[in-house]
Amino acid sequence: MKVLFLGDIFGNPGRTVISRELPKLIKKHGADLVIANGENAAGGIGINPGIADFLLDAGIDVITSGNHIYKKKEIYDYINAQPRLIKPANFPPDTPGNGYYIFYNPKFLEKKVAVVNVCGRVFVENLDCPFRKMDELLSEIYSQTNIVIVDFHAEVTSEKIAMGWYLDGRVSAVIGTHTHVQTADERILPKGTAFISDAGMVGPRDSVIGVKKELIIERFVKMMPQKFVVANDDIWVNGVVLDIDQSSGRTKSITRINYGADTDRF
C-alpha cells in the first residue's frame, strides 16, 4: 500500500498547486490513499466548507487539521457532516467533528486504514493529553484495522519524537505537522513505525512559514502587531510517501517529497 501524506496546505497558493500537482504525484508514487493537512488552507488560517470540498474533489481522501480548525465558524456544522475532515481527537469531546476516520476503497486496498489526528500541548493549546488519547483511540480502532496513520500536529520536536517512540509498533506512521518546515529525520523506528518530525508545507517558500516575509521581519524587529498576508512566490510541495505492508501494518519505507512546483524539480 502506498500512502501520500502532504504537509500543511497554505492559502490559495497551496490550494492552486494541489489542484495542478496532485494527479502527477498520485501517478508518480502509485498512491492508493492521499492524506493532507488542511488547517491553514483558508487564507493561511483555518478552513471553510468550500475549500474542504475543493480539496476533496482535487483527490485528497482525508483532510487532517490542528489547532486552527475552528477559526472559521462556518466549519462547525460542516465537520459534523463530512467525516473525511477530522479534528484533533484530544480537543474537548463536545467540540464539533471526529478525531479519526476509517478509510476503505476495495479497488486499491485489501484492508481499512485509520487516519488519526491529535494535537500537541507544548506551546500550542491546553488540550487533553495526546498520549493517553491515542491509547484510548487505538483500543477502538484495532477492532477494525491494524493500519493506523497519525498526524501529530505539534510545535516542538521533542514532543513529536516522544510520540513516535510511544507509538512505535502500535501504528503504521507518526507524521508531524504544524511548523510548515520540513525536517530531514524521516526513518522507520525499530518496531516498524514510520516517523518524521514535520512533513512541511504546500505553499510559498519565499515567505516566513507562508506569510509575506517583510511583515514577519517587521514584527520581529519592531515588536508591533502585523496583519498576516499570504505570500505568493516560489511555491513548494512537501510531504512523504509511505510504503505499508497491508498484512502486518508495518511501514517498509518512508520517502520525503520536497520540490519547487514552479520549477522542473518534480
Number of strands: 13
Number of helices: 6
Task: Please identify the top-level CATH class.
Answer: Alpha Beta
Named CATH topology: Purple Acid Phosphatase, chain A, domain 2
Strand and helix order: EEHEHEHEEHEHEEEEHEE
Radius of gyration: 17 Å
According to CATH, the homologous superfamily is: Metallo-dependent phosphatases
User: Structural class of the helix and strand makeup?
Assistant: alpha/beta
Uncertain regions spanning at least 5 consecutive residues: none
Q: What's the overall geometry?
A: globular
Overall mean pLDDT score? 95
Number of domains: 1
Query: In the CATH classification, which architecture applies?
Result: 4-Layer Sandwich
Q: In this structure, how is the largest beta sheet organized?
A: 7 strands, mixed
Strand content: 15-25%
Can you give the helix content as a percent range?
A: 25-40%
Q: How far do the termini sit from each other?
A: 22 Å
